[in-house]
């Protein structure tokens, strides 16, 4: 009680407590952005690579934050001290002084760490679907230990770019621009996904598996971005414990962040509409993020019309830059990390130096901004190329062709993210037990002509009903395969990031039953009845003769093998 009473009478203790709670709250908000990155990237990859993308996001945080704590912070301080910043202290995060008094050292470290890990996780989206997990983790270690800390030392660590006058409020270039350039470099070195480009240089569209995931991930990121920008603006209380310090400025930051986000979505949507005649959903989502990136470096000092201009231009450049990277540079940037984070970050960092963008009392040196972009960009590209170049020379950067075709979920993790095969069944008393308790033994009247193969092509969502129907007629043994086919079901036109493609092969499930005693007509009727919806695309059922059969375990042949 004595300590509490003393704290309540000490304005400094109140200041420290309130400010620590504020910083930790926005820190946790920024950490939640990793959920947004995970969903955004998972939605933009194929279903066979979803678990791999989610795993990379989790390991980015887990491995990266540990390395940044042990080594990265010290590297940033050394770089800052050697380039004109404050003198450095080796291993300062382990200094006991951080753990005494107000404990601000630990709080400030964690706040810096979530920024570092945001830069790290951006890269994973560019190289999705073809990179070995160990290669990605190796780069994450290097980025957290050296690449990002060097940039941090040059800038927020008060090194030479800071001394020159380079301005970046919350990481538009330091975090996002750097991450986008690293992703572009990595995607170039690892090469495009299989079948992304034809021999004549034309591009094949490879749609991601879930626009819903991508949009939800975008909105989570946008929510966390308020922690990124508003959280950087100020701490609530000044040193005397009563006055609101610079906290009044968070209103400007919240407003310009919101306007930049909105303008980015509209800018990307309008350009997509102009180019394709449609408002592309994914471009709107990516444009929202590009608008946020564009104003992140300047949101504290710009006037509100500048937020609309910078955010709108950052969104508008997105479809144009993505198309240039894809078609001219032939770089397969799966999640568009360069136009979202790289070019948008550069744009916002440079535009803040244009006269009239900032409040009257603030002048930004264009030479310092250009120098900062060139130094950060040059260092990032060279360091990233060095790491991935060595991995490529060692043959450790890319999965095999077989594994890429199979999907990284299976080859890298042994996981099937979307198991397709309906409800569980168990065998009891020599018959087949479905979840509703129906038991039917395998047997009945013999088929005319011996063994028959009943083959049905059905809608995927009807598989569970078909399995139930087959069990009820005594044909529980089936083989199920995911296939694509074309029949009476009309073709559709799909669009992925503004590019149209024809969907004339529709997803189906092939069900095969080999029967000897159970009448083939009954099996075919069971499939047909269970799969029927009355719409085009219900599928077909075929009955074919089977010349012979061999049971591998027992050596039985003919009908006995079935």
Task: Write up what this structure looks like.
GO terms for molecular function: ammonium channel activity; enzyme regulator activity. The protein is α+β, with helices and mostly antiparallel strands. 55% of the residues lie in helices and 9% in strands. The strands form three sheets. The chain has a four-stranded antiparallel beta sheet, covered by helices on one side. It has a three-stranded antiparallel beta sheet with strand order 1-2-3, with no helix packed on it. The termini are far apart. Residues 421-445 have low confidence and may be disordered.
- The chain-level mean pLDDT equals 86
List how many beta strands DSSP finds.
9
* Backbone shape: elongated
For the record, give the distance between the C-alpha atoms at the N and C termini, rounded to a whole number.
81 Å
Strand content: 5-15%
Specify the structural class: alpha+beta
Helix content: 55-70%
Query: How many alpha or pi helices?
Result: 18
Query: Rg from C-alpha positions?
Result: 29 Å
Order of helices and strands: HHHHHHHHHHHHHHHHEEEEHEEEEHE
User: Order of strands across the widest beta sheet?
Assistant: 5-8-4-9
Main sheet overview: 4 strands, antiparallel
The low-confidence parts are 421-445
């Amino acid at each position: 009680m004595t300590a509490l009473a003393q704290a309540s009478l000490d304005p400094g203790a109140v200041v420290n407590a309130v400010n620590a709670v504020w910083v930790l709250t926005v820190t946790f908000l920024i950490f939640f952005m990793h959920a947004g990155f995970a969903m955004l990237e998972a939605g933009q990859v194929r279903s066979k690579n979803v678990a791999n993308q989610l795993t990379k996001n989790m390991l980015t945080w887990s491995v990266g934050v540990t390395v940044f704590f042990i080594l990265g912070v010290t590297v940033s301080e050394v770089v800052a001290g050697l380039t004109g910043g404050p003198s450095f202290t080796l291993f300062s995060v382990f200094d006991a002084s951080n753990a005494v008094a107000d404990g601000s050292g630990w709080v400030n470290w964690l706040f810096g760490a979530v920024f570092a890990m945001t830069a790290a996780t951006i890269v994973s989206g560019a190289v999705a679907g073809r990179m070995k997990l160990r290669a990605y983790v190796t780069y994450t270690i290097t980025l957290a230990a050296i690449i990002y800390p060097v940039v941090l030392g040059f800038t927020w660590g008060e090194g030479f770019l800071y001394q020159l006058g380079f301005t970046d409020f919350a990481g538009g270039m330091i975090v996002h621009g750097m991450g986008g350039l690293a992703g572009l470099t990595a995607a170039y070195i690892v090469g495009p996904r299989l079948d992304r480009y034809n021999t004549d240089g034309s591009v094949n569209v490879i749609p991601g598996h879930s626009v819903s995931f991508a949009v939800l991930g975008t909105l989570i990121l946008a929510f966390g971005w308020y922690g990124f920008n508003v959280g950087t603006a100020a701490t609530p209380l000044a040193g005397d414990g009563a006055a609101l310090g610079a906290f009044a400025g968070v209103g400007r930051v919240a407003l310009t962040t919101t306007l930049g986000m909105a303008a980015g979505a509209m800018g990307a949507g309008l350009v997509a509409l102009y180019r394709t005649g449609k408002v592309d959903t994914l471009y709107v989502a990516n444009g929202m993020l590009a608008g946020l990136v564009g104003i992140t470096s300047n949101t504290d000092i710009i006037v509100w019309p500048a937020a609309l201009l910078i955010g709108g231009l950052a969104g508008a450049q997105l479809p144009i830059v993505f198309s240039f990277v894809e078609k001219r540079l032939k770089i397969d940037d799966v999640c568009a990390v360069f136009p979202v984070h790289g070019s948008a970050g550069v744009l916002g960092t440079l535009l803040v130096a244009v006269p009239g963008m900032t409040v009257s009392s603030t002048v930004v040196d264009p030479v310092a901004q250009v120098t900062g972009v060139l130094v950060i960009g040059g260092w990032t590209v060279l360091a990233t190329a060095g790491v991935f170049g060595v991995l490529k020379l060692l043959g450790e950067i890319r999965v095999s062709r077989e594994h890429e075709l199979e999907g990284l979920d299976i080859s890298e993790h042994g996981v099937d993210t979307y198991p397709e095969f309906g409800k569980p069944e168990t065998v009891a008393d020599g018959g087949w037990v479905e979840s509703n308790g129906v038991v039917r033994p395998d047997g009945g009247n013999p088929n005319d002509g011996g063994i028959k193969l009943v083959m049905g092509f059905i809608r995927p969502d009807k598989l569970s009903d078909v399995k139930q129907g087959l069990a009820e007629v005594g044909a529980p043994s089936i083989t199920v395969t995911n296939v694509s086919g074309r029949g009476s079901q009309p073709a559709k036109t799909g669009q992925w990031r503004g590019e149209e493609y024809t969907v004339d092969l529709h997803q189906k499930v092939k069900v095969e039953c080999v029967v000897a005693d159970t009448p083939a007509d009954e099996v075919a009727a069971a499939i047909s009845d269970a799969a029927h919806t009355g719409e085009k695309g219900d599928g077909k059922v075929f009955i074919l003769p089977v010349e012979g059969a061999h049971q591998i375990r027992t050596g039985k042949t003919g009908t006995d093998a079935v």
